[in-house]
Amino acid sequence: MKGWDVMNEIHFANYLREIRKKKKMTMVELSKVTGVSQSYLSQLENGKSLPTDSIVSKLLSGLTDSIAEQDEIKKEMNNRILLDESSKTLSDLEAKSSQLTEGNILLSKLTSQANAISEWNGKLDTANKTVNLNNVLNYFKKNEEVQTTIEKSLSGKFLGPEVDIRKIAIELDGQPLSNEEVKALEYLVIGIQKNRNKK
Prior knowledge:
Elements: H1 2-6, H2 12-22, H3 27-34, H4 38-45, H5 53-63, H6 67-129, H7 134-154, E1 171-172, E2 175-176, H8 179-198
């Protein structure tokens, strides 16, 4: 509301109050001679509303009988109404500008988050498609070590949290490979390694 506050000293509300007091009229008296309700006059003098042309005409007729003075007051009232409307428009634009800035900041954050999620999904997708064939070579050794560790645990030996008791599982079509199949795959992996070493 910064724009509205800056223009406060030239509000229509202040001018109407000033003229009414200059004419030594109470709000009740002005209401009686103009036909404008006291509650609406209160809104006008408190800056909560701006008058229509018909209300301005009623106010003029109630404030003075002089045509020349009515013209002078009308001109001043219209100028202040225009200034009030301009101030209100400025305030609305400032509020919308602030909202737009906040919206841009939020959009920037959401875009960054979306990019981070996209990058993570890309890494995850790559990881899901990667098969480490070194697990084949370590299959028997690792599983034997895990089995030994489990047996020690069952016999009452304490195992620290750093001990890995996960076995290596190799599946095909949702079924685990037998030892013979793993052995055959192991020979294949060793063959690939030897072939690479020749290059």
